[in-house]
Design brief:
The complex is a heterodimer of chains A (about 210) and B (about 230). With about 210 residues, chain A is of the alpha+beta class. Helices cover about 50% and strands about 20% of the residues of chain A. Chain A contains 10 helices and 8 strands. The model of chain A has no long low-confidence stretch (mean pLDDT about 80). In chain B, helix 1 links the parallel strand 6 and strand 7. Chain B starts with 8 loop residues before the first strand and ends with a strand. Chain B is about 5% helix and about 75% strand. Chain B is built from 1 helix and 10 strands. The chains are: A alpha+beta (about 210), B mainly beta (about 230).
């Protein structure tokens, strides 16, 4: 858990934004209140953020900033529905480098339709692609993962899930759980990767932001 | 906003009312409202108690107003005392008197004279405040902060010695912002791009990025340049 957080100071150093901007975006509700996590450290209390989410959110804000006012952006970013309506063509996916060509060629066709992808399908492709391109998963495993996501995700109620990819003695399996989930494994199990739905869509939102700005 | 005409709520003398959506809310005297109020224009004179939320595009508070719930507004003018039980959010607030907020306070512009107390985070675009007695916040995060002490007269000088709450100073745990210009401030940490520390400050640590000025009469534990 610890390494998933980033302190306010690190965040500002990393992104180059100022305190004023950060607080301003918070006031405009571009950054949700829940992301400000207070923790006590040896120098007193400090504020931390969920690392991946805040970094991609700030990236989104900075990239969207030119065309939109802060209020318009707040609407767009908080509005999940507008992203869910987005559909992307195969060509755009490659051009924008959302998902790698290999992944798309392998799994895109099984989706069957005339190379237009919905947001939900894109999330699945994106998840698979992330693990594949990180070199953590073989092609066969990728197929299994993709099938699992497609079949099982719709059964989860809230639509937010976490995915655990574990390996034990060379045998791999995927565990899909309702977020927030905490799992404990026996000693022989190695947790290869953990992904959360909210992280994934946050990153995808960044890549798809151009769709909404136009 | 919808087109059809909304009703007005008018209270005169000693009376009460119910919450709801109104066009104008005018309250004079002593009054109590049960339920949340949404209004285009809110005016309170005298002693008013609202036991729930208040949302208004324009608000004016004269006298002693108490809002137990959250308060939302476009512009607000306070002459007197305003108490808010939960959070306080709006565009601009002009204060002449006292505001006390239990929760967070989020404003674009906060201008005024008097005193304030915020239980949570005071987050604002611009704060320009003249302290007549204590200003207090747990945490302050701003774009620009200017705090000045009003030239206090004989009586307030005398009383401030007896009652510490009347001493005109700003107390906060941390202050973060792009531009910070303070005097008579007590804080653990100040972090900012441009920091100007005036007389009468007692600070634990100051971190700055671009520029710093420290008045010789200020007590500062440690000054650090952040990279």
């Amino acid at each position: 858990m610890e390494d998933d957080l980033i302190s306010k100071k690190q965040l500002l150093d990393l992104t180059g934004i100022s305190y004023g901007q950060l607080y301003r975006w918070k006031r405009k509700q571009l950054i949700p209140e829940e992301w400000f996590i207070r923790k006590s450290t040896f120098t007193g209390q400090e504020t931390f953020f969920p690392k991946e989410m805040i970094l991609s959110r700030i990236h989104n804000i900075v990239n969207m900033k030119d065309g939109l006012s802060l209020d318009e952006m707040a609407d767009k970013l908080s509005d999940k529905a507008s992203f869910e309506k987005v559909s992307v063509t195969a060509k755009e996916i490659i051009e924008r480098n959302i998902v790698s060509t290999t992944t798309l060629r392998k799994f895109g066709e099984s989706l069957g339709d005339e190379s237009k992808y919905t947001f939900e399908e894109l999330v699945h492709l994106f998840a698979v692609d992330r693990l594949l391109s990180a070199g953590e998963m073989s092609m066969e495993e990728a197929e299994l993962l993709f099938r699992t996501l497609q079949e099982k995700v719709s059964r989860l109620e809230s639509g937010s899930w976490e995915l655990f990819f574990v390996r034990k003695m060379g045998v791999s399996s995927f565990i899909l759980a309702q977020a927030p989930a905490e799992l404990w494994f026996d000693e022989g199990v190695r947790l290869v990767s953990k992904m959360t739905y909210s992280d994934l869509i946050e990153q995808l939102k960044g890549k798809l932001a151009y769709k909404l700005v136009e | 906003m919808d087109k059809h005409q909304l009703p007005d709520l008018i209270i005169n003398g000693v009376s009460g009312g119910a919450g709801g959506t109104y066009n104008n809310v005018n309250m004079d005297g002593v009054g109590k409202v049960v339920g949340p109020i949404v209004a285009r224009m809110f005016k309170g004179n005298g002693h008013m108690n609202l036991n729930d939320d208040l949302a208004a595009e324009e608000a004016e508070c004269n006298g002693v107003i108490k809002v137990m719930g959250n308060m939302r507004f476009g512009t607000l003018k306070v002459d007197g005392v305003l108490n808010v039980g939960k959070s306080f959010r709006g565009e601009s607030c002009t204060l002449n008197g006292m505001v006390s907020v239990k929760g967070d306070c989020e404003l674009e512009d906060f201008v005024g004279e008097g005193s304030f107390s915020v239980g949570g985070l005071l987050s604002a675009g611009h704060v320009d405040f003249k302290l007549q007695s204590q200003g207090k916040a747990n945490e302050i995060g701003v774009e620009s902060l200017v705090i000045r002490q009003v030239n206090n007269g004989f009586w307030s000088k005398m009383f401030s010695g007896i009652i510490p709450k009347l001493r005109p100073e700003l107390c906060a745990r941390t202050i973060e912002g792009d531009f910070i210009d303070v005097e008579y401030t007590t804080a653990d940490i100040i972090r900012g791009n441009i920091v100007i520390i005036g007389p009468g400050c007692t600070l634990g640590r100051v971190e700055y990025r671009e520029q710093i000025t420290v008045h010789p009469e200020a007590k500062v534990g440690k000054v650090e340049k952040a990279l």
